[in-house]
Amino acid sequence: MSRVAILTVLLAGLIVVGSSGSVFAAQMDARVNPNNESSPFKMNYQKTVFIEYPNGGQLFDVLQGKEWTVAGTADSSDPGVQDLMKQLNQKIRSDGSQAQVTDLNVSYDIHLKARNINTSVDYRVILEGTLSNYVITKDSQKTLIDLGWRGLTANGDVTIDGHEINYPINILLEIEPEAAQYFVGTEAEDVLSRNLINANFILEQPLTNWHFLFDPTGINVDAGTFGLSDEISGYVVSSWTMGESSIREGRQVERVFEAEVMADQRYVVRSVQSSDQGNLYAIGFGALDIFDGVEIAGVTPTPPEDYATTSTGDFPVFIIYGMAAIAAIAGGAFFMISNRALKNEKVGQQGIDPSRLVGYQTSSSSGGYQTNRGEAQLRDESNYQQTRSVYDDSTNSTPPPPPPQQATPAVTQEAACGCAASAEMGSECDCEMQGACLCDASCPCNADICKEQVNSMS
């Protein structure tokens, strides 16, 4: 049972992690052509709401097994889209910009899926339209374009095809009224009442903090994205991007709003949005400035002479090339030194030539046992003192033990001879006469029979 409980907890954790992935809040992609009266833009707004009931309860019973999707599209002929355009233009004017949204298409997708421990509701609204009246002044040398329209936000209801798509609480009240009643009048209602169509953060992030790059060649592939012909070839294309954590933009983190609901059980409502992202392109070289509190860009057909930048700002290209050259020189020097050291390294036999060595036996016999121990030394012995073995050093060797002393016989040396021993018994005889000999090797008797006995004992 304990193993089943552990596996259940792990599975629940995986479901929560897998269902709480980051989603982008607002994504902007706009391409401004200062030579035209209008330019395309696209905004993508996303948000995910989690309704959690870890202990089950009546809300779980209401949502159990539920899954549905509300989706649709509409163009500027739809009254709801026209109302949305008015809200967007009103927000642009309040931000001090003179630009306007003159055409708009809306697509939306809202998906609810209930699980055992939570229910997720994914909201997505995509706006694709046309931006006009962004050119402030224009002369033969420079065009000033308005960039203060970036905060495309709707602060009111947006109803399309009978569905309110801007505030998450409204779709729940429409499709799941029984579940939505648990949140009305609580802090969870505030979390669910944050508008989805909101790009204020993109406007609040100054363009000077965005990454700036420009393509001085005007690649032909980019021509189609601006709705232009191949004549764009040779034009400068500037780009500003935001959305990653950096020293300039700061640390970008997802925005999470959470509230608890105390009913028959404890319920949690969380709204999750990732940091906003923006991609803004303009034909020409754009130099940023501020006019009447609104960010603008002075666009010229070509960049100033000897001017080049990278994504880190006004950083001269020659410094980058110089640093790369220094690194290349350092790498080349390293390989040259390594190659020289490798060539100078000695290879093959080192030390004494083997042909000058000769084997030298250092062991001696012990009784009838002979070892094969030995060592090598120089043939000419010119430097033998440096190579000789410790076996030859009498100062370091242990002196051999003294030979064992033989016991002193109890009788005279002649007593060891059987011929002379008979003299003690008063019956001295000659060994040759007796025809026998009891002598050992120490007997000095010169009789032949004694010599034969000694030889046989050796």
Summarize, please.
The chain is 25% helix and 28% strand. It has 458 residues and is of the alpha+beta class. Strands 1, 2, 3, 4, 5, 10, 11, 12, 13 and 14 form a ten-stranded mixed β-sheet that branches. Strands 6-7-16-15 form a four-stranded antiparallel β-sheet, with no helix packed on it. The chain has a two-stranded antiparallel ribbon with strand order 8-9.
Distance between the termini: 92 Å
| Tally of distinct domains | 2
Order of helices and strands: HEEHEHEEEEEEHHHHEEEEEEEHEEHHHH
Helical content band: 10-25%
Q: Which outline best applies?
A: elongated
Strand content: 25-35%
Helix-and-strand structural type? alpha+beta
Uncertain runs: 1-24, 309-315, 407-416, 421-429
Tell me the total number of β-strands. Answer: 18
Query: Helix count, per DSSP?
Result: 12
Write down the Rg.
52 Å
The description of the largest β-sheet is: 10 strands, mixed
What value does the average pLDDT take?
Answer: 78
Describe the structure.
This protein is α+β, with helices and mostly antiparallel strands and 458 residues long. The protein has two domains: 304 residues, no CATH class; 45 residues, no CATH class. The protein has twelve helices and 18 strands. Strands 1, 2, 3, 4, 5, 10, 11, 12, 13 and 14 form a ten-stranded mixed sheet that branches. The longest helix is centred in the C-terminal third of the chain and has 28 residues. The chain is elongated, with a radius of gyration of 52 Å.
Highlighted features:
25% helix, 18 strands, ten-stranded mixed β-sheet, 458 residues, elongated, four-stranded antiparallel β-sheet, 2 domains, 12 helices
